[in-house]
Design a protein that fits this description.
heterotetramer; A alpha/beta; B mainly alpha; C mainly alpha; D alpha/beta; B: mainly alpha; ABC transporter involved in vitamin B12 uptake, BtuC; two-stranded antiparallel sheet; 12 helices; D: alpha/beta; 6-stranded mixed β-sheet; 5-stranded parallel β-sheet; 41% helix; binds adenosine-5'-triphosphate; binds magnesium ion
Chain lengths: 521, 311, 357, 320
């Protein structure tokens, strides 16, 4: 099943032939062939570290292939700089935000014009208005980039690609930060774009997105392309069949999304006193972030409480307030009977509170440190890895090897700087660190964002097990499916307020959905 | 003793303050460009002294101050190009190279001076001043502010040019992006290395002109180590200014005035050791920092070499 | 700068690595000598002759090498102080001010103390005074950094300018030696100074310096405290997330770094100089800062580079005199060596990466 | 045991090409060596840091006498002298005299500076004189004081303006020019300037600015003779000739009397003398020469003042 099995009418804009790219310790792309045709959404699937972003890096001029050829409109090209890529009509929305935080949206969009010119703000406005109208994207040109939520930032980046009137639009995990509604909109946007003759490369880990938005699917595995499904077969099959086929390609069928079936709430022993109680927890809102207004929550042992809500409605603030990274103005936080709102991060951790952040590179890890040390970042100085403050390298390395095994972290070695790993593998390092030893309450913030399917499944299983083992679990997520699949109760956050708490069950989806879009139950 | 503080004298003091401020102003504005684009240019002292020596050499042998400034800019630019190649293109440690260049050029210029001038100590004739009509007749302020060599007015004008560049031009956006998020600038299709190179070269040229001013107009002669740390003051000014050219101007003037103050107090016969008076501007700045010590908004990527696609 | 330091347990065999580093140091030095040689030729001097004298005095002659080793002492302390700061991501460019104030503190106290108590006790007190003063001088930048996030490059530079002036005021007005018209502090008698090693002229400060820098190296690379400092340096937000007390750690870094700079001053005064003269400022920091970077903030490598600097300055002075080159040429030589070493470092880095793929 | 002297060494902080302190020292040492048939090692540009290594090396190279020609060397040199038992000569430290080992030569041109003051006061049209210095080492202080005393003696209501460029501004030529210009603007038409690199800035200021009355500003230099690079503004200089001192040292070494006395320079043997230039009217010159004789004969006495604060105090007095 290769691209040549059935040739689409139009000529490919981009053709990759036997592309290979290696990094110290890994072959990220291994003899990859790929054809990008106008009028198609070409979905790239693959596990974490499969080589998707690397391939994108090659197309957008960030890196050069070690071997193989790239043809644009049939003529061979060496794409030697992002500038060159843009001039060839290849626009990319990268996996990690690529806006200058200290510039306004307008200035960001204007970057790259001839250096001697005055920025043409007026002209930009017209162009943006026109595009926004036809495609239904709304951005505030005068807002500073650092004031935007990740979702909004991605919209700006998509807009940027369109303004440059690209012929090829690349979206690397652009849905990972979007709400279900946002994802739907992006899907229809892509459809409108390809109808205009654009070619789109769409990277995601969510199979339902792939099947509902894609025209053609290619699957990467360990850098190699292991299969492709062309448009006609795409249409001929129904979603279920497609999904199973893809899963077949990706994992030889050991998983399927069916175990994401409906969750049967385990009979809560509310007789047991709550292990975590938030009462009137309040935090002033800032220019860049919403606050918290008198949040009240109770979490019982063994309970899985979800926090739903559109990204940027105070979930991060809630997590920071709980973990002790930010002090609350008023209210109380009680961890099995003890008041902890004045405790430091360390003290709370000792008290049994665990926090798995969503900002992996920003605060979760020290990207230049080896994986082994990042596993212990929150236990520096504690035995057995440190004996009277002296480092025990043997123990540290052994511990690392252990966790790399258990959590299947794909890394060249335990000494590789963690920043070199792919997004998903970094996430596994964090998971391993937070869950590796005893805890009473665990806060997960977007635990599966950026994880491939198999890792998502196993991570979710871990979360279930943790709750089952009697810990209280607070699960913050923008992925409604995830919440419905895992949680006993789901609280919905809107602008720093808990607008409602829903018992998980048949009509939980609609109730939560209504709350999320601001309707009452 | 009141008679001492005649108009003429006050005028001369202020004049001296301005004269002392100009090299700092040029150095500070220059450094600011590099820092905006993410390069901590510690080599600026070396660029200044190179400009001082070569600027003097040219001015002396050609008899033209303007050629002298050109020479100074050239020399500073050449030193800067070393920094650009090593630190911007190859990404070498900016502090090692910066200090290395400074030490090297202080030594080299002293060496050349020894070989060439140490017997004759050639000196330049007085620089011709451009008296601005009307303004220059204002008592005290007139002679102090409006009877300088044209380059002084140009240096001040540069402040406003830079404001315009930073606020209103594509280049300004590029510079800021290169300093705050180079990767974003790169994917927007602008060559980060090229942008930073341009910034570093501009810094070198301005520092060189500052040095040339110091030797050709400030002193009228080149002597070894003549810059005396002016470059490092420039770095401090640029950092304190937080990317705003006007603050560089004010800072430079603060230092210039405190120098003149030293003279004034002495001439007034007030018996204070110069060291104490020398501390005034630094004290003032430290107090300011303590008072309004806001998070200093330095570029996020300052001092970090840019490597495309690095993880 | 973190990325350059090797993580826990490196794969390559240490002996081999040592040799590699050694070659990687000597090769560039040779190239640097050749480049500097061209300058010498340009001004009509025979480079071989010049270098001959540098090596002879700086390295080979027994009395010469004693001078070289003695001059290392203060630079070792400064290097140690810089390593702590830089590894913790604190750009303490104010070492020269801290150094001078430490020097003045010890010079002002030691002679008076030595007159009334056993000299060993006087020395200990003088050392602790120097340390305290230098620490105090770094307090303001430390607090501003820790609680207001004010960039320390500015504040430490400012405090150095201030410190140099303050040191002069102290020498000229407060601690002036009444016994002479020359503006300088009282002089600590030779017999009261730190003892010399065996019957050489090498100051025992050398040993202290070596101990200090090795201790610092082990602290930063082997202990929990060192790791915490490195986390703060590499990613402050991660430090907060991991529950480290960033402000207190930051202040600790300033204190340790400044203390070592102050000790450098004390070692120089109590071991060699005996007093502080007005306007005295050796500005060791300027030479040592690039050296520790070239050493990749590694204590042992730093010892090597400090030794190199010392050889060049001692030997350079001698050679300059014998050949009639201005002593300022030494600066040129040191600069070229620094820059070429940096380039070699880079070339090697590239080569290694190329090989790993 | 009469030591035979075949090598002497001189150490100076800067290159001996400054038409000033360093050059006079180096030249004098050479001349003295020449005269006594003694080899001379010159170690110049050693800076103001630690000279012990150089001293030790020079001793090793067989110097029988090491002249530490900077007040900053007066701690190191005696120590090395005792350590290696090699005679040294130091400046500004009479207290250190040690027979056979340490001699002191305190060079003070205060008497010469006094004469310069008298001359300046006679010639000043504005009755305002300026003293500009780049630092305040003892030997300069005594001359600043001497000059001020001379001015006062000649004309009690003449003003003397005193300005220090800045701490350790020895190489700050721009500062020298800036400060001198201010002092001229304050009314001075004759500048008594002391400074190394910075004194060229002073000279520049004098050459390029006009006095209050639009006339020429004149410059009085110290220690060295800048005639060679004069552009017509050099009024005079308090020239030192250190050769007699060094010759005497060599002689004393030979006759084993080294370290028993402090050496000095003075008007009597012209080791301190005013430089005669075309700028000086003959009548003024004769008067000044007469005063010189009075000083030698003791009719006029000039007390040296070495402390900076005292010197500054004098100036403010003079001013009132
Ligand atoms: N600049 C780099 N240096 C070293 N290794 C790299 C670099 N970029 C990518 N890699 C490695 O190449 C492999 C592919 O990474 P890539 O980011 O392409 O995976 P991915 O498919 O995007 O994974 P994810 O879905 O988690 O983003 C990974 O093992 C990663 O560690
Ligand atoms: N001569 C120059 N003067 C100042 N800045 C320059 C100059 N040349 C380039 N630059 C800077 O370097 C960056 C990269 O230059 P480049 O020429 O690629 O940009 P550009 O404005 O798109 O020009 P062009 O479209 O001609 O390539 C520019 O953004 C600009 O900031
Ligand atoms: Mg990716
Ligand atoms: Mg991912």
């Amino acid at each position: 099943m290769t691209a040549t099995s059935h040739q689409a009418a139009a000529e490919p804009i981009v053709t990759l032939e036997r592309i290979t790219k290696a990094f110290p310790g890994v072959v990220a792309n291994d003899n990859v062939d790929l054809q990008i045709l106008p009028g198609e959404v070409h979905v790239l699937l693959g596990e974490n570290g499969a080589g998707k972003s690397t391939l994108i890096g090659l197309l957008s001029g960030l890196q050069q292939p070690d071997s193989g050829s790239i043809q644009i409109d049939g003529t061979q090209r060496a794409i030697n700089s992002p500038r060159h890529a843009l001039s060839l009509g290849i626009g990319t929305v990268f996996q990690h935000a690529m806006l200058v935080p200290t510039l306004t949206v307008a200035e960001n969009l204007l970057l790259g014009g001839p250096w001697w010119e005055r920025p043409r703000k007026e002209r930009l406005r017209e162009k943006v208005d026109e595009i926004s109208k036809s495609l239904g994207i709304a951005v505030d040109l005068d807002a500073y980039a650092h004031d935007l939520s990740l979702g909004e930032q991605q919209q700006v980046e998509i807009l940027r690609a369109l303004i440059r009137d690209s012929r090829v639009l690349i979206l690397d995990e652009s849905t990972s930060m979007l709400t279900p509604k946002g994802i739907e909109e992006l899907g229809s946007l892509m459809r409108r774009l390809v109808n205009r003759g654009l070619a789109i490369i769409f990277i995601t880990h969510k199979l339902n997105e792939a099947v509902s938005f894609g025209d053609r699917i290619s699957v990467l595995k360990l850098g190699r392309k292991v299969g492709e499904i062309g448009p006609d077969r795409f249409k001929s099959l129904d979603k279920a069949e497609l999904t199973t086929q893809i899963v077949e390609m990706m994992f030889g069928g050991q998983h399927s999304e069916d175990d994401a079936g409906f969750h049967k709430p385990n009979p809560l022993s509310t007789a047991e006193p709550p292990v975590l109680v938030l009462d009137g927890v309040t935090l002033e809102s800032t220019s860049t972030a919403p606050g918290l207004n008198s949040v009240h929550l109770e979490l019982h042992p063994g309970e899985l409480l979800g926090i739903a809500g559109i990204d940027g409605n105070g979930q991060k603030q809630l997590a920071d307030a709980l973990s002790g990274q930010s002090r609350i103005e008023s209210g109380s936080i009680t961890l099995n009977g003890k008041r902890i709102e004045t405790h430091s991060v360390g003290e709370r951790r000792d008290a049994g509170l665990r926090y798995l952040t969503d900002d992996r590179l920003g605060e979760g890890t020290v990207s230049t440190f080896p994986v082994s040390l990042n596993f212990l970042l929150k236990q520096i100085g504690s035995p057995p890895y440190w004996r009277n403050q002296i480092e025990r390298r043997a123990d540290i390395d052994q511990h690392a090897e252990h966790l790399i095994q258990d959590y299947d972290v794909r890394t060249p070695s335990a000494h590789t700087p963690v920043g070199r790993l792919s997004g998903g593998n970094i996430q596994k390092v964090l998971l391993a660190r937070e869950l590796s030893d005893g805890a009473k309450v665990v806060i997960f913030n977007k635990p599966t964002y950026g994880l491939d399917l198999s890792n998502t499944v196993s991570t979710r299983q871990r979360i279930r097990d943790i709750a089952a083992s009697g810990l209280g679990v607070l699960l913050i997520s923008t992925d409604l499916e995830e919440l419905l699949e895992l949680c006993d109760r789901i609280a919905v956050m809107d602008a720093g307020t808990i607008t409602g708490i829903v018992e998980n069950g048949e009509n939980a989806r609609t109730e939560v959905g209504r709350l999320m879009v601001g309707l009452s139950q | 003793m009141g008679s001492l503080f005649s108009e003429v004298f006050l005028g001369a003091l202020l004049f001296g303050a301005v004269a002392a401020a100009v090299p700092l102003l040029l150095a500070g504005l220059g450094e600011q460009i590099s820092e905006k684009s993410g390069i901590l240019n510690i080599g600026i002292e070396g660029m200044m002294i190179a400009g001082a020596y070569f600027g003097f050499l040219v001015a002396y042998s050609s008899g033209s101050l303007w050629l002298g400034f050109l020479g100074g800019a050239l020399a500073g630019g050449i030193v800067a190009s070393v920094m650009a190649i090593l630190c911007v293109r190859l990404g070498l440690n900016q502090i090692v190279i910066g200090i290395g260049l400074t030490l090297g050029l202080e030594g080299l210029t002293a060496l050349l001076h020894h070989v060439q001038f140490s017997r004759t100590y050639p000196r330049l004739p007085a620089a011709d001043v451009l008296a601005i009509p009307l303004l220059s007749d204002i008592p005290v302020l007139g002679p102090a502010l409006f009877r300088h060599h044209l380059i002084v007015y140009l240096a001040v004008a540069l402040v406003f040019v830079m404001i315009y560049v930073y606020r209103r031009t594509q280049l300004g956006l590029n510079l800021q992006a290169a300093g705050d998020k180079p990767a974003a600038l790169d994917v927007a299709g602008v060559d980060v290395v090229r942008t930073r190179t341009v910034a570093v070269l501009s810094t070198g040229a301005l520092a060189g002109i500052g040095g040339a001013y110091l030797a050709n107009i400030g002193a009228g002669i080149f002597v070894p180590f003549i810059t005396n740390g002016a470059g490092f003051l420039g770095i401090v000014l640029a950092m304190l200014a937080r990317g705003r050219p006007v603050w560089v101007l004010l800072g430079a003037l603060l230092f210039g005035i405190s120098l003149s103050l030293t003279t004034a107090l002495q001439v007034a016969g007030i018996n204070i050791p110069t060291d104490v008076i020398q501390m005034i501007p630094f004290l003032a700045v430290m107090i300011m920092l303590v008072a309004f010590g806001r998070r200093s908004s330095l570029p996020a990527a300052l001092g970090i070499p840019y490597e495309r696609g690095a993880r | 700068m973190e990325s350059t330091t090797t993580p826990a347990g490196t794969v390559t065999d240490p002996i081999q690595a040592m040799i590699h580093r050694l070659l990687l140091t000597l090769g560039p030095i040779l190239i640097a000598l050749i480049i500097a040689g061209l300058i010498l030729i340009a001004i009509g001097v025979n480079p071989l002759e010049y270098y001959g004298y540098v090596i002879k005095r700086g390295l080979l002659s027994p009395t010469g090498v004693q001078q070289t080793l003695t001059r290392m002492a203060p630079m070792l302390f400064i290097a140690a102080g810089l390593i702590v700061a830089f590894r913790a991501g604190i750009w303490n460019l104010g070492v020269d001010g801290q150094f001078l104030l430490g020097a003045v503190a010890s010079a002002a106290s030691a002679p008076l103390l030595a007159a009334v108590m056993p000299s060993w006790l006087a020395l200990i007190i003088a050392f602790s005074l120097a340390t305290t003063v230098a620490m105090a001088w770094s307090l303001l930048p430390a607090l501003l950094k820790a609680y207001h996030g004010v960039n320390e490059i500015i504040t430490t530079l400012m405090m150095t300018f201030l410190g140099v002036s303050l040191a002069n005021v102290m020498v000229k007005l407060v601690f002036l030696d009444p016994g002479t018209t020359v503006p300088q502090t009282r002089t600590l008698p030779v017999e009261d100074r730190m003892f010399r090693l065996f019957d050489t002229t090498i100051s025992s400060g050398l040993l202290l310096g070596l101990v200090a820098i090795i201790a610092v190296h082990l602290m930063m690379t082997r202990t929990a405290f060192g790791l915490k400092l490195r986390v703060v340096g590499a990613n402050p937000r991660a430090a907060v997330h991991s529950g480290l007390g960033v402000p207190s750690l930051t202040i600790a870094v300033f204190a340790i770094s400044a203390a070592l700079a102050g000790l450098a001053g004390a070692v120089d005064i109590l071991g060699v100089q005996g007093n502080v003269r007005a306007d005295w400022n050796p500005a060791y920091g300027l030479a040592v800062i690039p050296a520790v970077f070239l050493a990749r903030l590694n204590g042992f490598a730093s010892i090597g580079f400090v030794f190199l600097l010392s050889v060049l300055s001692i030997g350079g002075e001698s050679a300059a005199r014998r050949i009639g080159v201005p002593t300022t040429f030494t600066l040129v030589l040191i600069a070229i060596v620094l820059i070429v070493l940096a380039i070699a470092e880079y070339a090697d880095h590239r080569y290694q990466n190329a090989r790993r793929t | 045991t009469a030591a035979d002297v075949n090598t002497i060494a001189i150490l100076t902080p800067e290159e001996g090409t400054d038409y000033g302190w360093n050059q006079q020292g180096v030249d004098a040492a050479k001349a003295a060596g020449e005269a006594a048939g003694v080899e001379v090692i010159v170690a110049q540009g050693l800076g103001y840091g630690d000279v012990r290594p150089t001293l030790r090396e020079l001793a090793e190279d067989g110097a029988n006498l090491m002249i530490a020609h900077a007040s900053g060397y007066n701690t190191a040199a005696p120590e090395i002298a005792k350590e290696l038992n090699v005679p040294v000569a130091i400046v500004d430290t009479p207290s250190a005299l040690t027979p056979g080992l340490i001699a002191d030569y305190t060079l003070s041109g205060h008497a010469g500076a006094y004469l310069a003051g008298r001359m300046a006061a006679k010639m000043s049209r504005s009755n305002t004189l300026g003293i500009v210095v780049s630092g305040e080492p003892p030997s300069w202080n005594s001359q600043s004081a001497g000059f001020a005393q001379g001015v006062k003696a000649e004309n009690p209501d003449a003003k003397v303006i005193y300005a220090v460029i800045g701490p350790a501004a020895y190489s700050d030529a721009a500062g020298g020019k800036r400060v001198t210009e201010s002092v001229i603007a304050a009314g001075a038409d004759i500048i008594f300037g002391q400074g190394n690199g910075s004194s060229f800035g002073m000279l520049q200021a004098v050459e390029t600015s006009k006095a209050g009355d639009g006339g020429k500003v004149l410059f009085i230099d110290v220690i060295g003779d800048k005639t060679a690079i004069d552009k017509g503004n050099l009024l005079s200089s308090v020239v030192w000739n250190i050769e007699p001192v060094y010759s005497a040292m060599i002689a004393d070494l030979k006759s084993d009397t080294f370290g028993t006395k402090s050496y000095a320079i003075g008007l009597a043997d012209d080791s301190v003398k005013l430089l005669k230039t075309p700028q000086i009217p003959d009548d003024v010159w004769t008067d000044v020469m007469a005063m010189r004789d009075d000083i030698i004969s003791g009719k006029i006495t000039v007390e040296p003042v070495f402390e900076a604060t005292a010197v500054r105090a004098m100036m403010s007095d003079v001013q009132e």
